[in-house]
C-alpha cells in the first residue's frame, strides 16, 4: 500500500476529498503525513481533527530549495511514495521534483494548457471561453506544465461569476483528484513523451 504526503497552504478542501476517498477504500493508500507551510491553514487544523500525522513547516523568509529540503526530509521520514499538492501555494524547486520523479500530483482549476498559474477561473471568465474545468497533472519544473493525468470539463454559464464558476469547478476537482491518485497508487499510468497512458486494472491476484 502506498503512502501519501499531502501539502497544503489553505482550507484544504481537496485534502478532505482525498482523505474521505482513502477512508472509503477508494484509494489503495494511506495518508502518511500532512504538511502545511502556514500554521493558520484551516486544512492543517482539519488534519489534526481527523487524527492524521500533520505538521507545519513555516516557509516565510526561507530560500526555496532550503525550505524544500526540510519538507522532503519529513516526507521521507514518513515513507511517502506519492506527494499530492492540495492548494500548496509554492513553486517546487528542481531538487524537490528530482527527489520524487513522476510522483508529485497537482490539481489546477482550468483545462491546461489554458490558463496556467493563478486566478485561472477569473481569466477564463474574462477571456469568454464557453468551457473550462480542472486538470490533474504530474508536476515538473514549470508552472502547471507537467503531463496531464485527467481532466473534467465545466460549462461556463452566461450568468457566472468567479465565485459560482469556481464552486462548480471545485466539485469536479473533488471528484477527479482522488481518481487520479488512485491510478498512480495502482501503478496504472505510463508516460509516453508528454502523454499519460492509463493501463487497465489487473484482475485480483495477478
Distance between the termini: 16 Å
How many structural domains are formed by the residues?
1
The helix content, as a percent range, equals: 25-40%
Low-confidence stretches: none
Quote the CATH topology: Rossmann fold
Spell out the helices and strands N to C: EHEHEHEHEHEEHEE
Shape type: globular
CATH architecture label name: 3-Layer(aba) Sandwich
What is the strand tally?
Answer: 9
**The CATH class:** Alpha Beta
Would you tell me the structural class of the helices and strands? Answer: alpha/beta
The overall pLDDT, averaged over residues, is 96
Q: Report the radius of gyration as a whole number of Å.
A: 17 Å
Name the strands of the widest sheet in spatial order: 3-2-1-4-5-6-7
- Please summarize the sheet with the most strands: 7 strands, mixed
Percent in strands: 15-25%
CATH homologous superfamily caption: Formyl transferase, N-terminal domain
**Number of helices in the DSSP assignment:** 6
Structure description:
The protein has 206 residues and is of the alpha/beta class. The protein has a single domain (2-198), classed as 3-Layer(aba) Sandwich (Rossmann fold), CATH 3.40.50.170. The chain is built from 6 helices and 9 strands. It has helices spanning 13-23, 42-49, 64-77, 94-99, 120-127, 162-185; strands at 2-8, 29-36, 54-56, 82-85, 104-108, 131-138, 148-155, 189-192, 195-198. A 7-stranded mixed beta sheet has the order 3-2-1-4-5-6-7. Helix 1 (13-23) runs parallel beside helix 6. The longest helix has 24 residues, at 162-185. The chain is globular, with a radius of gyration of 17 Å.
Amino acid at each position: 500500500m502506498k503512502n501519501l504526503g499531502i501539502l497544503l497552504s489553505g482550507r484544504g478542501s481537496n485534502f478532505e476529498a482525498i482523505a474521505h476517498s482513502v477512508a472509503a477504500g477508494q484509494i489503495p493508500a494511506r495518508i502518511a503525513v500532512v504538511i502545511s507551510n502556514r500554521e493558520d491553514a484551516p486544512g492543517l487544523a482539519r488534519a489534526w481533527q481527523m487524527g492524521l500525522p500533520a505538521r507545519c513547516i513555516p516557509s516565510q523568509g526561507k530560500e526555496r530549495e532550503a525550505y524544500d529540503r526540510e519538507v522532503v526530509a519529513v516526507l521521507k521520514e514518513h515513507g511517502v511514495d506519492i506527494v499530492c499538492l492540495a492548494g500548496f501555494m509554492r513553486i517546487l524547486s528542481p531538487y524537490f521534483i528530482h527527489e520524487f520523479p513522476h510522483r508529485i500530483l497537482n490539481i489546477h482549476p482550468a483545462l491546461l494548457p489554458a490558463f496556467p498559474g493563478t486566478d485561472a477561473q477569473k481569466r477564463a471568465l474574462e477571456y469568454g471561453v464557453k468551457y473550462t474545468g480542472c486538470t490533474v497533472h504530474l508536476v515538473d519544473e514549470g508552472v502547471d506544465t507537467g503531463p496531464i493525468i485527467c481532466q473534467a470539463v465545466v460549462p461556463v454559464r452566461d450568468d457566472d461569476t468567479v465565485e459560482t464558476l469556481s464552486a462548480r469547478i471545485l466539485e469536479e476537482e473533488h471528484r477527479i483528484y482522488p481518481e487520479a491518485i488512485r491510478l498512480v497508487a495502482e501503478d496504472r499510468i505510463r508516460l509516453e513523451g508528454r502523454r499519460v497512458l492509463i493501463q487497465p486494472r489487473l484482475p485480483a491476484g495477478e
